[in-house]
Amino acid sequence: MKKLSSEDLREFKILKHYRIIRKWACKTCDLNDADLELLIYLEAIEHFTKDDFKKGTYSYSWDNRRWNRLLKQGWIMVWRKRNRTTQKYHIYKVSTKCKQLISRMYRIMLGEEEMPLNKIEKINRYSYKVIAKSIENVNKDKRI
To answer: Helix, strand, or coil here: 94?
Structure first.
């Protein structure tokens, strides 16, 4: 099996529409950019502790409510609880909901799936109209 190279990724043009895909994911899932990118980071390391989460937040804006918000909204879940003898801290993982969102983003980047407009079109604000137009352009570009 051949290892992917930077040229392979360039040929796929995987980052061409990353910004609008990220904006779509944030708007439809009520996340901010830093939350989404942190979830992508955490999904890549599979099982993590709260300390791993803190290390992952160093490159993002400070938000002391982020941990509790992501837990409460179901983006992060406890994988193994602490037991105070052999396991001194909880171990976490991203939820199925999070994995499905990230997988969907990859499918959209690769052109395997179109971004839906249903949640974006209903809101009558200028910023949402601009995003809706961008999504139409991305979907059209993937069909070509």
So the answer is: strand
When computed from its CA atoms, the radius of gyration of the chain, rounded to whole angstroms, is 18
- List the helix and strand counts (H, then E) for the chain: 8, 3
C-alpha to C-alpha distance for 93 and 131, rounded to whole angstroms: 31
What is the helix (H) or strand (E) element at residue 139, kind and residue range? Answer: helix 126-143
DSSP 110: T
- pLDDT, tens digit, 9 for 90 and up, residues 97-140: 999 999 999 999 988 999 887 766 666 677 778 888 888 888 88
Name the amino acid, one letter, at 36: L
Angle at 65 between CA 61 and CA 70, to 5 degrees: 95
Residue 73 in this model has a pLDDT that exceeds 90: yes
For residue 56, give every residue at least 6 positions away whose Cβ sits within 8 Å of its Cβ, in sequence order, or none.
Answer: 38, 41, 42, 48
Name residues whose C-beta falls within 8 Å of residue 13's C-beta, 6 or more positions apart in sequence.
none
Task: Read off the pLDDT of residues 5-31 as tens digits, 9 standing for 90 and up.
Answer: 888 888 888 888 999 999 999 988 999
Distance CA 117, CA 40 (A): 23
